[in-house]
Description:
It is a single chain. By secondary structure, the protein is an all-alpha fold. The chain has a domain at 42-90. The chain has helices spanning 8-15, 18-21, 23-38, 43-79, 81-89. Helix 4 packs across helix 5 (81-89).
Amino acid sequence: MALQVQNPFQILLRKLPKPLRNKYFLSITVFAVLLIFIDKHDLLTQWKLRGSVKRLEHDKAYYEQKIEQAKLDQENINNNKEQFAREKYHMHKSNEDVFIIEEK
């Protein structure tokens, strides 16, 4: 009678719960781990890119607002240069005082 030596991997395999021994479950799990953590387009990278896109959209809206303000200022300059200089840059002649009342 010869003693059978069992493969140590088979002993460990039997100790695992049944779902972990299922080859389909294992392949799906390995595939999911690859996609979520190891892939070039992993979850962390996508999260950082989404934050960058939101920040850039916010910057875009800010600069569009600044462009509109600059266009309005340009129209004001073209329509009345003296008034614009007095209100915006507080320029005045040497013998006068300028009072600016801002409405809220």
